[in-house]
């Protein structure tokens, strides 16, 4: 396989995999992410959010991920019904779950990160620059988030079969709404 | 591949003459090309395979090694092209 094909597959695997297959694979990766998060204290407290925390429980780790995926799938499905004539909900569910896969990188990276104490950061914000691993993790969140959002976009595009400006506007709106809903649910329920 | 557009001005071509290879009879006129003939070779191949697979998108996805929604989107694009030709 050529490097161009590998890159294409990395940003849009949904041309090859969707539906139940994507959901199965995505679920395995999400479960692995949840388990790693309990050891690395990385909380995915929002659809595109990630924070380092302390003493993250197994239950909370999975609750965060479940709320993220449910919010994302629900909002994308409703948006799909508005802008698309016909699509399968299982395609949205499967592709969106698989699109969360890049976040496993941050969960692993979080394990090797030494987070400065929050009280110390409040006193002196520049203290974060003393932790190299924290800076690396912060920088790593940028490409990983871009990759994940690209996957969300391609998942929505492939599942709903919509193109052009309508797709872009609907996707951005849906992503922002799902982020707000997930943050609100996590804040209210936790 | 049957030419469907004029190489000079890109207008849609019409059939002027048909010939019987058996008795050499020629039928002349000005006939419209069938809508499916206006599609690209790739799209025609897709429709051919779609019919062979009894119109099953799942079978098509399996044969082309593509996902179900990707194949459905390909079919939708062909449907839109046919609708545009028919207008």
Could you give the topology of this structure?
The complex is a heterodimer of chains A (190) and B (87).
Chain A: H1 3-11, H2 19-40, E1 42-43, E2 51-52, H3 58-83, H4 89-99, H5 103-111, H6 118-123, H7 132-160, H8 164-189
Antiparallel strand pairs in A: 1-2
Helix pairs in contact in A: 2-3, 2-4, 2-5, 3-4, 3-8, 4-7, 5-7
Chain B: E1 15-19, E2 26-31, H1 41-52, H2 57-64, H3 68-86
Antiparallel strand pairs in B: 1-2
Please compute the radius of gyration of chain B using only Cα atoms.
17 Å
Shape annotation of chain A: globular
Unreliable runs of chain A: none
Structural class of chain A: mainly alpha
Provide structural commentary.
The complex is a heterodimer of chains A (190) and B (87). Chain A is an all-alpha fold and 190 residues long. Helix content of chain A is 73%, strand content 2%. In chain A, strands 1-2 form a two-stranded antiparallel sheet. Chain A is globular, with a radius of gyration of 17 Å. The N and C termini of chain A lie far apart (45 Å). Chain B has a domain at 35-86.
């Amino acid at each position: 396989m050529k490097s161009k094909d590998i890159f294409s597959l990395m940003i849009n695997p949904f041309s090859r995999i969707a539906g139940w297959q994507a959901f199965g694979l995505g679920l395995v990766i999400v479960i692995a992410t949840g388990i790693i998060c309990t050891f690395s204290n990385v909380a995915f407290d929002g659809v595109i959010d990630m924070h380092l925390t302390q003493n993250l429980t197994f239950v909370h780790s999975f609750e965060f991920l479940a709320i993220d995926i449910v919010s994302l799938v629900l909002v994308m499905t409703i948006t799909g019904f508005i802008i698309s004539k016909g699509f399968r909900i299982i395609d949205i569910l499967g592709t969106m779950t698989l699109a969360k896969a890049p976040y496993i990188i941050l969960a692993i990276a979080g394990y090797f990160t030494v987070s400065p104490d929050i009280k110390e950061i409040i006193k002196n914000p520049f203290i974060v620059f003393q932790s190299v691993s924290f800076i690396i993790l912060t920088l790593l969140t940028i490409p990983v988030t871009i990759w994940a959002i690209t996957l969300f976009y391609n998942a929505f595009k492939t599942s709903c079969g919509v193109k052009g400006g309508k797709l872009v506007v609907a996707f951005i709106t849906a992503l922002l709404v799902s982020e707000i809903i997930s943050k609100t649910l996590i804040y209210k329920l936790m | 591949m049957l030419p469907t557009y004029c190489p000079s001005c890109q207008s849609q071509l019409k059939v002027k003459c048909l010939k019987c290879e058996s008795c050499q009879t020629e039928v002349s006129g000005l006939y419209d090309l069938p809508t499916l003939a206006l599609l690209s070779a790739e799209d025609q191949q897709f429709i051919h395979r779609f019919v062979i697979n009894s119109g099953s998108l799942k079978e098509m996805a399996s044969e082309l090694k593509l996902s179900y929604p990707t194949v459905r989107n390909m079919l939708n694009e062909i449907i839109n092209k046919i609708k545009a030709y028919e207008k």
